[in-house]
Amino acid sequence: KLSKQDGEVKTTSTTLLAKKIVEIVEKIQKRICDIHGITPETIINIDKTGIGTGTLDALKDYKAAGQLQATINGIDNGARANDSGKFVNKVTEMYWNLKEKIEEGKVKLLYDEQTFTEFATRRYNYEYGQMTRIVLEKKPDYKKRLGKSPDKADALVLAFYDNKKKGSWVV
User: Fold this and answer.
1) Alpha-carbon distance 133 to 62, whole Å?
2) Cα(159)–Cα(28) distance, integer angstroms
3) Which residues contact 44 (CB under 8 A, 6 or more apart)?
4) How far apart are CA 152 and CA 118, in angstroms?
5) pTM of the model
6) Is the Cβ–Cβ distance between 168 and 14 less than 8 Å?
């Protein structure tokens, strides 16, 4: 899944299907060029766990060979949150912060029913221990409950996360 964040108001999401990592990377590169153009200011955030690992490595290879000018960030959704006193992990923090930006009117999204539904139906709970922290519903639990993965919502959240500015968002 690929989402493009454009200032405050526009987000597009595209599903890219391919059998080989090289095909995926070429499609990512082409799609970004088609909707935005790749510049040194372009930020590509990739979930670096699971299938995203190979895509991340291939994009970094393209960049090292001078075939890609973008900043490539590998994001580990299960990593420690920047605000670990409030959130259990990074993915929870990313979803919650984007939800707040939308509620505050700082982010307005183009309507895409699937993305909106996935984002709106992912549940939050609290983890109790030495401190009470927010935790996002685990992807396997979401898949079991709704019968599919929230891939478009995950891509949307990654599109708005700016890893270079610790805990900040591109809005």
Assistant:
1) 39
2) 13
3) 28, 32, 59, 70, 71, 72, 73
4) 7
5) 0.78
6) no
Contacts of residue 12, defined as CB under 8 A and 6 or more positions apart, other chains included, come to 3, 4, 35, 110, 112
Note down pLDDT in tens along the chain; length 171 residues: 445 555 443 444 455 545 566 677 777 767 666 655 667 777 888 889 887 888 888 888 888 888 778 888 899 999 999 999 999 999 999 999 999 988 998 888 878 899 999 999 999 999 998 889 999 999 999 999 999 999 889 989 998 887 555 444 443
Between the two ends of the chain, the Cα-to-Cα distance in Å is: 20
Q: To 10 degrees, what angle do helices 113-121 and 90-103 make?
A: 120
Tokens at residue 58, please? 């291939």
Distance of CA 11 to the CA centre of its chain: 12
What residue type is 149 in one-letter code?
S
Cα–Cα distance, 94 to 158 (Å, whole number): 8
Do β-strands 161-162 and 168-169 pair in parallel, antiparallel, or remain unpaired?
antiparallel
Q: Which of 86, 97, 80, 104 is nearest to 156 (CA)?
A: 97
